[in-house]
Amino acid sequence: MDKPIMAKATAVWLVDNTTISFKQIADFCGLHELEVQGIADGEVAQGVKGFDPISNNQLTQEEIDKAEENPLHKLKLKFNAAAVGEEKRRGPRYTPLSKRQDRPNSILWLVKFHPELTDAQIAKLVGTTKPTIQSIRERTHWNIQQMEPIDPVALGLCKQSELDAAVQKAAKKKAAEGDAMSDDDRRKLLSTEQSLGMEAEPKMPTAIEGLETFTLSGNDDDDEDEKRNAPVDADSFFNLPDSDDEDDDDDN
């Protein structure tokens, strides 16, 4: 923390209880020097109760004494061990109550369209737990039959930039492991803007799918053409083979 809490109220207290210059107070509280002068003149912060920085563990009396003796001395905020790392505290992403019922749908969307994302990445994106993700992956979730995949960005559970960063990280990991990716897989692992600029993989036309191993033989075609183009002999239609009856008569 670079500035004291309740900066304006702290400035009111310092103006009323010390002889520190307006500039020193302004620098310490993050205010403009003219604003501090307005506080002293009663034109600014009327009705604001002074906030004692000494009793609230933000300044020491020794620090105030130094500032009163030396107009060039800059007040330093008292070190508070309890506040160290407060701004960097990490934990599960908070999801508003109104959107928590949509979380399973967003998890289903991520599992379906981005199976390369790890459970930890999904948990970080939408603020859920790994057992919940696992139950949706295995389709053992109690409400799986009523769920439908919905983009978490559309639901406001995460930002598009966060989702893109997660899939980019998954893409690099998959590429490092040497896994081959199809054109569709690569598009899933990239943002929309990047995927549109990619060159598509050559694909076989649908009309000839399944004929990759088919080979043409010239001999068969030639034989068929010869049969179709051969002259027809009219006598051949009347020179029918002898029937069995005629054979029987000859025997008699």
Question: What does this protein look like?
Answer:
The protein has two domains: 7-83, no CATH class; 91-200, no CATH class. By secondary structure, the chain is mainly alpha-helical. The chain has 14 helices and no strands. The radius of gyration is 42 Å and the shape is elongated. The relative contact order is 0.07. α1 packs antiparallel against α2. This is Cytoplasmic protein. Residues 242-252 have a biased composition (Acidic residues).
Features:
single chain; 252 residues; mainly alpha; 14 helices; 0% strand
Summarize the structure.
The chain is mainly α.
**Share of β-strand residues:** under 5%
The total strand number stands at 0
* Alpha carbon gap, first and last residue: 128 Å
Return Rg in Å.
42 Å
* Continuous helix count: 14
Number of domains: 2
The arrangement of helices and strands along the chain is HHHHHHHHHHHHHH
Q: Which structural class do the helices and strands define?
A: mainly alpha
Global shape: elongated
Describe the main β-sheet briefly: none
Helical proportion, percent range: 40-55%
Uncertain segments of ≥5 residues (pLDDT<50)?
A: 82-89
Return the average pLDDT rounded to an integer.
75
Region (Disordered): 174-252
Biased composition (Acidic residues): 242-252
Protein name: Cytoplasmic protein
Pfam families: TrcR (PF06242)
